[in-house]
């Protein structure tokens, strides 16, 4: 390990996060290099200062104030979200299924009304009509004429 | 009450998700100091830090359903919210200018303060003052860092988080955290040298 690699590795070593092999290489370098050894001591001293620097403990009643605020109605109205999302989350899926059903019905040549309200037992009037497109009245009149002619 | 003292964070969080007010209050008691320290480290001001603490726990309460132990520790989840709130506060005001102008109170911390760590009883008054002055300068230098470097250093030095946990809070990579901490320390040393 050369001196260029040392500063950052020293920082990581002090935090106890350096890998075993790199640690070994660094320690060997520190034994031989007074400059890097000096860097190590300065960073270690700084780390100790940083740990000791008082960022101040919070005011003694802060936790109590936080709890009091949570007790107030304006905070409690914002209650923890309950997991109702699983119901509403399925709405898009249901909508897609409905649209698919409509689409399939149309592809089969039948409208939704036909699919939902058609009754297969009812006689179909179109079967009584001739290909000439006669109306039902015409057909009945013809039947009557035929009867009269017999 | 005894249950809240011995329960793990995850047990308390699950209890709070189930509607237990005591469990959530226990989490407030447990983590107000950590949230405050992080907020103070990022925003630089005690009042802003208090505001961040309030907002953090309100948001945590509202979004409790989104916490899942399988995704990571509760502390990481909470400090992520705190960091985001701190950035919102930090970004809305001209903090750097205020921090230069505001003095820090280095008056007596009292016998129950930080004596255990940086104020050994055997130190004489002159050495003690020198030590306090050094810490004052380090804190000033820390406050001058860019927010991301400062956040990474605070989470490391004060919360004792490892790089992986810091990366989760900051929504970045481990290698990025390594660089942030390294550059932050380097910058502080340069400031102290000047």
Kindly describe this structure.
- The complex is a heterodimer of chains A (150) and B (194).
- Chain A is mostly helical and 150 residues long.
- Chain A is built from 9 helices and no strands.
- The N and C termini of chain A lie far apart (123 Å).
- Chain B has 194 residues and is mainly α.
- Chain B folds into 2 domains: 1-94, Orthogonal Bundle (Rna Polymerase Sigma Factor, Chain: A); 120-194, Arc Repressor Mutant, subunit A (Orthogonal Bundle).
- Chain B has helices at 2-6, 9-17, 21-43, 46-62, 74-92, 95-101, 115-118, 125-143, 147-157, 163-170, 174-193.
- The termini of chain B are far apart.
- Chain A binds chain B through residues 7-8, 11-12, 15-17, 42-43, 46-47, 49-59, 62-63, 65-67, 69-70, 75, 78-83, and chain B through 17, 24-25, 28-29, 32-33, 36-37, 40-41, 46, 49-50, 53-54, 57-58, 61-65, 109, 113-114, 117-118, 134-135, 138-139, 142, 153-154, 156-158, 162-163, 178-179, 181-182, 185-186, 188-189, 192.
Structure described in brief:
The complex is a heterodimer of chains A (150) and B (194). Chain A is 64% helix and 0% strand.
So what's the overall shape of chain B?
globular
**What is the total tally of β strands of chain B?**
0
Identify the CATH homologous superfamily of the largest domain in chain B: RNA polymerase sigma factor, region 2, helix turn helix motif
Beta-strand proportion of chain B: under 5%
Uncertain runs of chain B with pLDDT below 50, 5 residues or more?
A: 103-120
Determine the structural class of chain B based on helices, strands and strand pairing: mainly alpha
Average pLDDT across residues of chain A?
A: 74
* Radius of gyration of chain A, CA atoms, in whole angstroms: 44 Å
- The helix-strand sequence of chain A is HHHHHHHHH
Q: Give the CATH architecture of the largest domain in chain B.
A: Orthogonal Bundle
Task: Give the class of chain A from helix and strand content and strand pairing.
Answer: mainly alpha
Element pattern of chain B in H and E: HHHHHHHHHHH
Tally of discrete structural domains of chain B: 2
């Amino acid at each position: 390990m050369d001196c260029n690699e040392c500063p950052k590795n020293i920082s990581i070593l002090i935090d106890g996060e350096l890998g075993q092999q790199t640690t070994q290489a660094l320690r060997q370098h520190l034994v031989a290099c007074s400059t890097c050894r000096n860097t190590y001591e300065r960073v270690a001293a700084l780390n100790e200062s940083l740990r000791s620097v008082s960022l101040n403990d919070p005011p003694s009643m802060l936790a109590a104030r936080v709890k009091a605020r949570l007790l107030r109605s304006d905070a409690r109205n914002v209650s923890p979200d309950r997991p109702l999302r699983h119901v509403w989350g399925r709405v898009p899926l249901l909508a897609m299924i409905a649209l698919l059903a409509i689409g399939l019905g149309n592809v089969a040549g039948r409208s939704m009304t036909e699919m939902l309200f058609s009754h297969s037992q009812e006689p179909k009037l179109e079967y009584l009509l001739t290909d000439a497109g006669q109306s039902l009245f015409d057909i009945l009149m013809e039947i009557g004429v035929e009867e009269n002619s017999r | 009450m005894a249950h809240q003292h011995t329960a793990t964070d995850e047990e308390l969080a699950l209890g709070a998700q189930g509607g237990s007010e005591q469990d959530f209050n226990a989490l407030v008691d447990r983590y107000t100091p950590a949230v405050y320290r992080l907020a103070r480290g990022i925003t630089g001001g005690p009042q802003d830090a208090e505001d961040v603490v309030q907002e953090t726990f309100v948001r945590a309460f509202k979004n409790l359903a989104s916490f899942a132990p399988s995704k990571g520790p509760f502390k990481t989840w909470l400090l992520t919210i705190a960091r985001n709130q701190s950035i919102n506060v930090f970004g809305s005001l001209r903090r750097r200018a205020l921090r230069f102008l505001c003095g820090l109170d280095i008056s007596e911390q009292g016998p129950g303060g930080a004596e255990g760590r940086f104020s050994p009883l055997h130190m004489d008054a002159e050495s003690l003052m020198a030590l306090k002055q050094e810490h004052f300068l380090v804190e000033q230098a820390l406050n001058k860092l860019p927010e991301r470097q400062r956040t990474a250093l605070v989470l490391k030095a004060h919360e004792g988080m490892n790089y992986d946990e810091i990366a989760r809070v900051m929504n970045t990579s481990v290698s990025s955290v390594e660089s942030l901490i390294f550059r932050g320390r380097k910058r502080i040393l340069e400031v102290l040298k000047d």
